[in-house]
Specification:
It is a single chain. By secondary structure, the chain is of the alpha+beta class. The protein is built from 25 helices and 28 strands. The strands form six sheets. Strands 16-28-27-26-17-24-25 form a seven-stranded mixed β-sheet, sandwiched between helices. The chain has a six-stranded antiparallel β-sheet with strand order 8-7-9-15-10-13, with no helix packed on it. Strand 22 and strand 23 form a beta hairpin. The protein is elongated and about 120 Å long. The protein starts with a strand and ends in a 6-residue tail after the last helix.
Amino acid sequence: MIELKIKGLHCADCVGKIEKSMSSLEGIEHIKLNFSTSKMQIRYNPDAISLEEIHSKIKSLGYGILDEEIEEISAFSLKNRKFVFTFISGIAMLLGLVMYFLTPDTVLMTFYLDIHTSSLLFIIAMVFGGYHAVKKAGKALLNKVFVIDSLMLIGALGAVLIDAFAEGAAVLFLFSLADLLEGYSIERSRKSLNELVNITPKVASVRRGEKYIDIPIEEIQVGDMVLVRSGERIAVDGQVIKGVSSINQAPITGESMPVTKDIGDIVFAGTINQEGSLEIQVMKGYKDSTVAKIIELVESAEEQKAPIERFIDQFAKYYTPAVIIMAVMVTVIPTWVFQQPFNVWFYKSLLLLLISCPCALALSTPISIVSGITSGAKNGVLFKGGAYVEQLAKIDTFAFDKTGTLTEGKPVVTDVIPFNGYSREDVLSIASTLECRSEHPLGKAIVEIAEHESFFRECSDFTAITGKGIKGIIENETYLVGSKKLFNPETLSNFEEDILKLEDEAKTIVIVGKENEAAGIIGLSDKIRDGSKRMVEDLHAMGIKQVIMLTGDNKRTAKAVAEKIGVDEYHAELLPEQKVSFIKKAAEENRRIAMVGDGMNDAPALATAHLGIAMGAAGSDTALEVADIALMDDNISRIPYLLSLGKRTMGIVKQNIALAIGIKLLFAILVFPGLVTLWMAVAIGDMGVSLAVIFNALRLTKVR
């Protein structure tokens, strides 16, 4: 498999024709051309065809092959021959019009024909304006491929045949100008993806012996030590070994606020070190890094067409031949059957040919989908294909996993209630002194809060009591920390009201005290994510009919979280297969359901839903594999943005299709009463519509 970057690819309609022509070669086993990136992947049999022959075939179709190390020349550069020729064509066109309308248009004797000065200038305009079109169309015809440039040449030559030199010049000049503008606008749309590709530096400072040297990132190995100075981009995925700094993770996760990274924390390639220097141990090679996976996913997503794209492709196949046949009939029937003037109806046929150019229609959908996908990638949202953008716009129900999605997935201390003369500090001190020797998640939460207040004491004879809690001796007193099972019921009888209150709030209870004397209780809960309640409100405001919570947790906890967040319904104590059954049942009820989870234990439900959305996928290969859409950070508030992006993308797709078909249909109708000229057909009916479609799609890059 080889990958080539194709130069001069400005029309989505040409992609299929190039693929068809190339795939007909003996020895070509697979070919895929990505319009948005201009990259062509080819798998071939070297015994049947050589790489030189492949290059030659591509060039014979009128396209170039760009070296990845060399930047493509800007559309409006004097190094760009097309720009220079278009400029000369425009000047000749302008001078021709001045001669024709404002000066005595003298006759020149050339090759025994009377040619006016203005006509000669118009011919010069056609030569320079049509130079690249002739080259491309000629090469394509030799390969039995019909390209849009051929339509324009037929229109211009037809105009010359009926002595309409000015209009023939206008056709080729405007086509060349519009092609230049179209190339520039396509260049802009590809720039979003190129920005993503280029966020990782090409070299990094790697320790070799006692010093750091700059080497290409491709040569960095897992385990190497990399130095990242203040203000530099991080080149690798790795773990901080030395230093503390504030990291801008927006290129990967879309987070607007910098994140502090300390020793032991994970950092990602492409993120920006804003403060002190860091020493990082490499955990993944560049090709396996998170940013490399993001780029790969975005590029492959743009190759996977949405259903509406496939429909437009099929429609365009029949649309263009139908209009060409109609254009021929417009000349043949009136002139042969009804004896009408040939020049009049031949001119109308030329107009229909030019208007029929399918560029705008072919661009209407892919350019919008590409803009939506790249906009999402820049904001920490990855689509695995254009189909999922379209699917997102149809969703009417969202189902959320609770733990790790609507909540943070780790317990935090919410309440400390002391009894029998003990203080809050006493309760935390006893609990943290024992729990720091335990691996239990609840214990870690207690220790975390105690670390900030230095509540630890000396402890001896520490013992874990399976299923109940822990005990140990502190200052010659034996203390217990754990569930109610660890204490005599009489010890807790006076505090049942406090315990029940916390349990009704779906909090986990940890009792602290001696066997016959309670010192206090600590309440813990899985903290609801900031923005969960607002997210549910926003989804309802955006037209989502139902927001549902699915959880394996107990009913009391599920009810408390559901009431705080404001979901429409909740289902508790569900096994993974029961979540799948619920989603299947919802689908049978004709609901379009999206499942949002952490991409790990929710994998079956994510795969079953119409759309699977994984939270916190940065650095998680599993989440990237399982989901249709991946949110790179744990920010639940991105769900409304995601829905908005999907709806706006499909809205622009529909606008572009309506614009492309509507204007062409209108111009086709206006041809018959003679209200359209050749230059109008090109400038407005063809390339004007194409540019409008492109710039309309580019608005998606501004969605935040």
